Amino acid sequence: MSTFHETAVAAAIAGRLPFGYPVIPTPSTDPGATGEAIAVTVTGTPGARIAIQVADPSQLDDGSPTARLADRLHPILESAAAVFGAGALSAGETVDAAETFAQPGTQVFDLVDADGAVVARASVRVEGGAAARSQGPQRLSRIAGVEMELVVEIGRTRMPVRDVLALEPGRVVELDRAAGSPADIKLNGRLIGHGTVVVAEGDFAIRVERILDGAEAV
Predict the structure, then answer these.
(1) Which of 23, 145, 15, 142 has the alpha carbon at shortest distance from 76?
(2) Measured between alpha carbons, how far is 130 from 132 in angstroms, rounded to an integer?
(3) How far is the C-alpha of 57 from the C-alpha of 98, rounded, in Å?
(4) Collapsed DSSP state (helix, strand, coil) of residue 149
(5) What are 85-128's pLDDT values in tens digits?
(6) Where are the alpha helices (DSSP H) in 17-85?
């Protein structure tokens, strides 16, 4: 099970990677890897070794497609390193992903899109011992500003293009869910629970009825 630091680093990376769609970190069940990754070292108490591997760098929507990947990922790695508080961050270097991810004590996370496809991977190896790790929750505020998209979905349907083109005001579109059924709660495109749509102070809101097993690991 990953500790606070590893989980917080993965969340910071997922929140900052400039994809045109949301991604969410989940502990990898297959730490093996091929290809290259960009890694940095955080010097401090605790210190860490953080690496990011992007499956297809051309999907990064940062306006710098011709820049070095290490430079493009540096702001994301800086945000991740902030989890550890004060400390020096080394320049990014290109490393062998398989060797880096397999280092003892390294936690690997898959960063997946809404369809469950792995679009990037992140690894974290914390250095500094259990005493330093126990201070992790005190630094939660360092990533508290990382935004994640929460969506409530009451239903969906599939329509032929001809029916979509025929849509007009007043047309009723039936969804694949019966009236009164719970709505899906999705975090960065990932289903995490179910709830009931309510009205709170004149606005629509969601009353959480159930959090799915394993949602905490997300």
Answers:
(1) 15
(2) 5
(3) 18
(4) coil
(5) 767 888 999 999 999 998 888 999 999 988 888 999 999 998 76
(6) 69-81
